[in-house]
Amino acid sequence: MAEILAVCRSKDKGTRKDVVESVTVKEGYGVVDDAHADCCTHRQVSLLAKESIDKMVKIGLQVGPGDFAENFTTRGIVLTSLAIGSQLSLGEEVIIEVTQIGKDCHTGCAIFREVGRCIMPKEGVFARVVHGGLVRHGDTIELKGQSNNSSNG
Fold first, then answer.
1. For an engineered disulfide with 13, which of 23, 35, 52, 78 has Cβ 3.0 to 4.6 Å away?
2. 96-128: buried (b, 16+ CB within 10 Å) or exposed (e) per residue?
3. Which residues of 25-47 are buried (b: 16+ CB within 10 A; e: fewer)?
């Protein structure tokens, strides 16, 4: 079963996120009180698999949930295999739609400077919030289907 292993947010962009017990996710906006939340972007929330973080740990880095500035660290779902437009339910209320897999990592990214490598450009998944609500550590993740009106921006 796929689950939310960690819920994370930060006040500043380009920094590691703090792990918290739960967050409120707002439709068309993102995680409340998170630096990356924005009504005018298709990257309202970000996800990264614990399995991806484990690859970095295997090469000797001391990293964990939130260290790559992801909002949700997942376990048990191959995020990079999702199609653009795939919809996921997070917990009992939240529905997100995948809008982008990977991203160009900006130079000067604090994560890259601190860690020396960043996995978000290849393995990070970004989504817009279709339906808001509360997301907690331990919530399940379910693939709901694919939207007919998905876009990448």
1. 35
2. bbbbbbeeebeeebebbeebeebbbeebbbbbb
3. bbbebbbeebbbbeeeebbbbbb
Domain residue limits at 87: 3-146
- Assessment of whether the complete model's pTM goes beyond 0.85: yes
**Residue 151 domain-assigned?**
no
| Count of structural domains within the chain | 1
- Split the chain (153 residues) into runs of 10 and give each run's mean pLDDT: 97 90 98 93 95 88 90 96 97 97 66 66 91 98 76 47
Residue 152 lies in a domain: no
Find residue 134's DSSP bridge partners.
24
